[in-house]
Amino acid sequence: MSFTSKDTKLYREDEKAGHKSLGVKEREKLVKNYLPAPPNRSRSSSRSRKRKHETSHFGIRKFLRSQLYLLLYIFVHAIFSVYIRIRVAYHAVSLRILSILKYHHNTPDYVRRDVSTLKRLPKHVSVILTLEDGGRAGDALEKLVNEVAEVAAWCASAGIPRLSIYERTGVLKRYMPQTHRALAHKLKSWFGKHQAPPLSISTRGASSIHSANREYLSHEQTPLDVILVSEDDGREAMVDLTKVLVSMVQKEKISASDITLDVIDHELSEAVMPEPDLLISFEPYVDLQGYPPWPIRLTEIYCMPDNQGVGYQVFLQGLRKYTEATFKLGK
Q1: What is the pLDDT of residues 178-211, one digit of tens each?
Q2: Sign of the dihedral defined by the CA atoms of residues 138, 140, 142, 143, in that order
Q3: C-alpha distances in Å from residue 112, one per residue of 158, 167, 301
Q4: Which member of 142, 155, 255, 331 lies 3.0 to 4.6 Å from 160 by CB, making a disulfide possible if both were Cys?
Q5: CA-based end-to-end distance of the chain
Q6: What secondary structure letter does DSSP report for 274?
Q7: Are 186 and 150 in contact (CB under 8 A)?
Q8: Strands across the sheet containing 199-203
């Protein structure tokens, strides 16, 4: 409620006079008409009881709400866990059935029969393999070499001329002669001693190892080139190429304008490996594990969900997915 004009005039005259024209009681009487009514004790006590009642209700509601959220979380988690287990069991059973029905029997003819219906095959297949338990197990290296030999036999039987094996630690590079002997022995057990395709194995910074019968290649035999790749081939290859190009520019052997993407692509392909058409990961999800990024710009990458271990059916399914893939390179 605002002051009336009469009261306002009296208050201002008193203020100009230094609050001497009006007494204390007169000023209190003047202001008293505009003060709010004092609170009722019974009303304030009822309000405080109501506030306490609401607070207790709010605590119970908060507790019930939190329990409801917890129940919903457990329910959703249980449903998702059941779904994951059913999916894993379904994929494991279906893969096992396919492995029995379409087993290759270590015979190239069965592999050729499986890939004969495919419209196209990749010229270069790359696979990612993992050293079990980081090599702490006693037979981890032997198992890894056996997996490399199996994949090499599948590629040779399917008529794929180039295979690159990526293993992150690079342990296969330190055992190149042993790996070559294991691969050659596997190919001979598949094709026969005199019908085995010529084999060569190479890696960056080391001399290639070739089979002795490479010069006696027949028209029906497709030579198999195996390239060993590790995590160091991505970063170190880029660093080495950069140093070489910088040195050549400083020595005025080439100009900076001569360094193009085509030149870098060609040099990295020569130093590490050409770009693969298909990259297969035998993990249940795509895990590149530090795979060199430059060679896989246009590579088709495949993995089978819920898969565990290297298997022929995963390899065959990867070839089928490559056949169905569409590559749009642009202009």
Answers
A1: 999 999 999 999 998 888 899 999 998 888 898 7
A2: positive
A3: 5, 27, 22
A4: 155
A5: 80
A6: P
A7: yes
A8: 209-210, 199-203, 224-229, 162-167, 124-129, 278-281, 300-303
Report whether 197 contacts 111 (CB < 8 A): no
Q: Tell me which DSSP letter residue 124 carries.
A: E
Question: Nearest 5°: phi and psi at 120?
Answer: -150, 155
The DSSP string of 186-234 is HHHHHH-TTTPPPEEEEETTS--EE-TTGGG--TT---EEEEEE-THHH
> What is the tens place of the pLDDT at every residue in 49-73?
556 555 555 578 888 888 999 999 9
- If 0-12 CB within 10 Å is exposed, 13-18 middle and 19+ buried, where does residue 4 land? exposed
Residue ranges in the chain modelled with pLDDT below 50: none
DSSP string covering 278-318, please?
EEEE-SSS---TT--SGGGSS-EEEE-TT--S--HHHHHHH
pTM: 0.71
